[in-house]
Amino acid sequence: MGLTRVNGMLFGGDYTPEQWDLATWDEDVALMREAGVTMVTLPVFGWARLNPAPGEYTFDWLDDILDRLAAAEIAVDLATATASPPAWLVRAHPEILPVTAAGVRLEFGSRQHYCPTSATFRAATVELAGAVAARYADHPALALWHISNEYGDHITECFCDSCATAFRAWLLRRYGTLEALNHAWGTAFWSQRYDDIAHIEPPRLAPGPVNPTQSLDWRRFCSDALLECFELEKAAIRVHSDLPVTTNFMSMMRELDYWKWADAEDVVSDDAYPDPADVDAPWQAALNYDLMRSLADGPWLLLEHAISAVSWREVNVPKRPDQSFCHSLQTVARGADGVMFFQWRASRAGAEKFHSALLPHGGTGSRGWAATLRLGRALKDLAPVVGTRNAEHVAILMDWDNWWALEGNDHPSTRMQWLDTVRSWYEPLWRRHLTVRFVRPGADLTGLPLLLVPNAYLTTTDTATWLADYAAAGGTVVVGAFSGVVDESDHVHPGAHPGPLRELLGVQVDEFWPIPDGERRAVYFADGRRAQALTWHEWVEPEGAQVRATVADGDLAGRPALTRNAVAEGAAWYVPARFADLGEVLAEVLVEVGIQSLPPGWQVPDGVEFTLRLGADGARFAHLVNHTRGAVTVQAAGTDLLTGTRHDGKLTMAPESVAVLVLDEP
Ligand code: GAL
Q1: CA 20 to 30 Å from 20, out of 247, 384, 538, 647?
Q2: Residue 561 confidence (pLDDT)
Q3: Atom 12 of ligand 1: nearest residue by CA position
Q4: Count of CB atoms situated within 10 Å of the CB of 52
Q5: Cβ(581)–Cβ(591) under 8 Å?
């Protein structure tokens, strides 16, 4: 991950010392030491305190706490403090407040209230980031720069005039001419032609559906506009410091193209808040962590999660102590080299006073504090895992352009959403203990025999060629429904669906046929197994592909529900229906591809998560997380890093427990 200034697994959290008096600071630092905290993040929302008036800086308090932390050998993830502009700046320049699609300017009084393209806001952030960097570049506590906070949280887009101007400039850079833009946006339809760039506005609230390509470009622009804010602050830091920079991601987030963002930062970090009341949270969280590891191309940093309850859901259920332990160590299992929290000490005032913290309101006598101490000890024991890389078995295509286009308006069904789709493909993999690497279009797939494409509604011809080359070279590709439909401008590919994927998949799709809500269609596999489809199926005509499953009832009875096309050395499967359990389909593919994730002789029951982290020196760390509320027996062998116990072939895991087995030399 590249944090040269801290050893071992990172442990700590967001720290807001500006809420507390000096006596509390003393206690904080002492208790951080007791808990084994190695890094804290501050001052994320410190702008008003650091910069109380134009050009005026009050660094004394930050100097003081950073010196205390350095003396206690606690590293700092130092925030540029730019996430929430202070009242004086907002009142002097109200135009920095964001505007909604309906034209409402949002008020001061919450947080992250800024227009991403405001020149005034950007200049102020660059000034503050530069001042912070100049002052602390050589501070011994400094390990990592933390730019802003959760870009896209609260404000993902702003529809003000400044954004309109920036959008026009962005469009001119993309298209060069108005003619090219008119073509890309298909403005010949509905009298939308533009003869003057100044007539183009953001997709503000309009009487009916907004031009879909305008909306798609708007999403691209909004992601880029926030990324520019990040880049500007990073440049201000780079004048003074070469230490790594990060900004905390928000898991599988639609609004930001994290491939681009990850390219721009040194450390990929994530804020993850799995809901303890949701039984599906473990595998859904696993998906997010696989994405983070893929973005990082290796170890990543969990920069925020909750030791118990959050305060922003409608119902905020706490975590059982063992569940909390599992949630935290699950991130290490999936490649995190640090486990950090929001926040260190529970607030007594403000919007997040009911959010759990490493040091709860009840102090060191609370069960929460006991959970903190336990986790701190475990993370210390896991130091040997730091820097190791996860074994990965299956690739999944992840493309933000496609996500945005898929969820555009006026499609055959609004039920085709990316997150639901990718989750339905991911869950059966998780249950089979297969670790996923998410890949962007065109990625190097060496060593990955199977590429899943849950959806590629937007498929460029380059992407289609990349998929075809992969299959021709021996890869197996599985493509989900409603793919190969449009190009990068959201224009339907010429000819029959699935456009540039037609030859690869060996099928033609005559018509998309959504299934009404609440209805299901029976599907029969060629080998006699039965399954069900819901939400979506298609009128498919095979063009060389072999039919492996068939719709058995309804309008499309007799049409293919699953096909396989032999392609040179490899194969291309098409899944033109949404299966109630995609495991039925993937089981068939996995048998053919023959991927084995568990070490020979191992058996890991459902509900127990398995991953393997591999050291450059050949060390192997098998992570087992029993997310179930019952004891389970696992067939496995190795020495548990957390307990020191040696297991020879059989291991009984307590309900909601974790084992990290060091495997013997192969
Ligand atoms: C994050 C945010 C933190 C805190 C946390 C609470 O989204 O970055 O500042 O609000 O949520 O769960």
Answers
A1: 247
A2: 98
A3: 310
A4: 13
A5: no
Q: 305 and 331 in contact (C-beta within 8 Å)?
A: yes
What b/e readout covers 111-132, taking b as 16+ CB neighbours within 10 angstroms? bbbbbbbbebbbebbbbbbbbb
Cα dihedral angle (303, 308, 311, 314), rounded to 10 degrees? Answer: 120
CA 602 to chain centre: 30
pLDDT tens per residue across span 345-361? 999 999 999 999 999 99
How confident is residue 533, by pLDDT bands cut at 50, 70 and 90? very high
Measured from the Cα of 250, ligand 1's closest atom is 7
Q: Which residue has the tokens 């069904």?
A: 413
Yes or no: say if 382 and 660 are a contact pair by the CB < 8 Å rule: yes
- For 611, the token pair is 């991953």
Please say whether the beta carbons of 429 and 586 come within 8 A.
Answer: yes
Q: How many CB atoms lie within 10 A of CB 546?
A: 15
Residue 362 to residues 312, 357, 614, Cα–Cα distance (Å): 21, 10, 40
- Is 150 considered catalytic here? yes
Q: Is 538 an annotated catalytic residue?
A: no
Q: What angle in degrees, to the nearest 10, is found between the helix axes of 178-185 and 212-238?
A: 120
Question: What is the CA angle 181-183-188, rounded to 5?
Answer: 115
Pocket test for ligand 1, best of 150, 154, 256 (most atoms within 8 A of CB): 150
Kindly give the distance from the C-alpha atom of residue 342 to the centroid of ligand 1, in angstroms, as a whole number.
Answer: 6
Quick check: bond before 274 cis, omega within 30? Answer: no
Place of tokens 């530069």: 130
Residue nearest to atom 2 of ligand 1 (CA): 150
Looking from the CA of residue 273, the nearest atom of ligand 1 is 12
Catalytically annotated residue among 157, 255, 265, 304: 304
Q: Which of 531, 527, 530, 522 is nearest to 546 (CA)?
A: 527
Distance (Å, whole) CA 171 – CA 198:
11
In this structure, are residues 536 and 415 in contact, taking their beta carbons and an 8 Å threshold? yes
Burial class (CB in 10 A: 0-12, 13-18, 19+), 652: exposed
Phi/psi at 395 (nearest 5 deg)? -95, 145
Distances (CA, A) of 157 to 84, 101, 203, 224, 650: 16, 9, 11, 11, 53
Enumerate residues lining ligand 1, CB below 6 A.
149-150, 153, 271, 273, 304, 306, 310, 342, 352, 355
Q: Please report the atom of ligand 1 found closest to the CA of residue 44.
A: 9
**444-495 tens-digit pLDDT:** 999 999 999 999 999 999 999 999 999 999 999 999 999 999 999 999 999 9
* Amino acid sitting at position 295: L
Q: What are 263's two structure tokens?
A: 């390219």
What letter does residue 53 receive in the DSSP assignment? B
The first and second tokens of residue 561, run together, are: 């529900």
Residue 286 has phi, psi (to 5 degrees) of: -55, -40
Q: What angle do CA 549, 553, 556 make, to 5 degrees?
A: 75
Using an 8 Å Cβ cutoff, are 586 and 618 in contact? Answer: no
Cα–Cα distance for residue pair 95/584, rounded to 1 Å: 54
